[in-house]
Amino acid sequence: MITVKNLFHSYNKDGNYQVKDVSFDIEKGEVFGFLGPSGAGKSTVQNILTGLLQLQQGEATLGGYDVKNMSKDMFNKIGMSFEQSNVYSKLTAKENLHFYGKLFDNPTRDPMELLKLVGLADKADIRAGEFSKGMKHRLTFARSMINNPEIWFLDEPTTGLDPSIAADIKDIIKQKNKEGITIFLTTHNMFIADELCDRVAFIVDGEIKLIDSPENLKLQYGDKLVKVEYFQGDQVLQKTLSIVLPEDKELLRNIIENHEIRTMHTKEATLEEIFIKVTGRGLI
Amino acid sequence: MFKRIWIIFIRDLKVNSKDFISLYILLIPILFAVCINLFAPGINDTTINLALIEGENQDQVEYLQRFAKVELFKNTEEIEKRVEKRDAIIGIIPKIDGYYLMSQGDESQGIVDYAKLLVSFYELDIDTEDSKGELMEFGRSVPPLKKSLVNTSILFISVLGGMLIALNIVEEKVDNTISAINLTPTSRTSFVLGKSVIGVLYAVFGSIALLFITGFGRVNILQLLLILLVTSLLSILVGFIQGLTNTDIISAAASIKLLFLPLIAGVLSIEILGDKWQKFFYWNPFYWAYKGNDIILAKSGTWGQILVYSGLVLLLSGIVFIFLAPKIRKGLE
Ligand SMILES: Nc1ncnc2c1ncn2[C@@H]1O[C@H](COP(=O)(O)OP(=O)(O)OP(=O)(O)O)[C@@H](O)[C@H]1O
Ligand SMILES: [Mg+2]
Predict the structure, then answer these.
(1) Tens digit of pLDDT for each residue in B78-121?
(2) Which of A54, A75, A88 sits opposite B184 (nearest CB)?
(3) Predicted-assembly ipTM surpassing the 0.90 threshold
(4) If we measure between CA atoms, which residue out of B2, B171, B7 comes closest to residue A99?
């Protein structure tokens, strides 16, 4: 559905690349995640694919259309939720969706239905200028669905939202994916990536370091860990120990022999721990 | 394409009609017109004064009041006294088989004729609806001050149309919504045209309203439309550029105000400077627009002249466009 080959991008066209030799393919119906720290070039790649930024070097296709000279018709099939919400402050939530929907040629969704979906139904007639940051973000998110897109770009869809709303948004994304929609998601939140994505790409300083499914990554890179709680006198102590490292194994044996165990679980490494291991840097 | 131009225009209209600054701009043509009527003697506003006897013929008084300032007096002697006092008043006094006019003798022939005609028209039971001609303007020419005020106002209104466009572009910039529009099948041309419609319609309807209120409603509207459209092109261009290069409404409006300089220069050069200076203003599109409007308002413009003037405005705006188009294209990305 999306193919990208040897993509380079330099904002100042000075040989200083913010995106370097990026290549990947996204299958139809897949949720593909771009995971990387701030400034890694995630939004830049998304903006090149949607045509917001000119493609400078490399090749990219979107649903069979060449990104270099994208047909207007392609825009009927894509939707994008922007990282920074961008809605008309002087229009109400409903007017915003209504106006935007009319710019498409294909059947669009009912604004009220979308507002209900993101929890803004009771705010439909309030000007977006009076909205909080999170409300504007949800409106931007709702707007990206109005033309029933086949390819859906989500730039940081849950950033800055409170957990219960973030959970709603995650459910909507899962639901859409079930309907067969291809999703390209950008985030620096590894929980989101882990939970939603079929595959993730780790991107740092404009370069993709690795692409794989979260499950594979955990099998491949994650040491098996054991989290153990035990009694020492009346105290409950807790330790997380590797079952690979010799000194941890020794310690674990020691605990089991000499103490009463309260709980003991194996624990997988998180995507974040893997990210740090692979790229040598954190996600923030 | 037309669908999207329309949708974008309607959105702008909706926003502008709710916003204080743009609403104010929308009302300016009416405000201008009212001010011109107040301060410049108009063609509707007849300056002829008539003196009649009170209660002698109420029907006639009512008829004449529609076309002249009527003062009422008790009897013929009072009218006589009044007529002697000031020059521009004419007494209308009954005699056995009709009326005679009493004047001081130094009134202009036009005024006396006007009074005579009014009385005859009343006697013949002729009303304005019966006229094929211009009863209201009989014997008088359009006052030059009023004409040039109306002309200048029309040019102002077209610049304000550009300001309205700039306001709407600034709104898109501040809200960062152009990128969202760019992800719909809306072509850049549709967007630019959609955003321009409000400026053009404002210039057209604002000017026509101004003309009707100030009593120029019977000029050749088609000729005026042609000049208006080409003048608006310039305002649209400047509106777009300022909208795209400024991030707040105030600085955009301030930059657009600079357009008033060539506008005023064009007007003043024609109204004040002698023939030998005129060639120094040929570069100025407002100069030609003013000239075109002038003959339209005087109802002396032929289509040939109007085409030449609007052609010149178009040419000069075209040159400006060639310089500004790349900037506009870049700003919309
Ligand atoms: N308009 C621009 N002009 C110049 N440089 C830019 C521009 N936009 C982004 N950059 C640079 O390009 C690099 C990648 O930015 P990008 O926005 O793609 O990062 P990101 O991965 O989306 O980060 P975040 O997680 O903060 O959204 C950064 O170094 C940034 O400074
Ligand atoms: Mg980003």
Answers:
(1) 888 888 775 568 888 888 788 888 877 766 677 778 888 888 88
(2) A75
(3) no
(4) B7
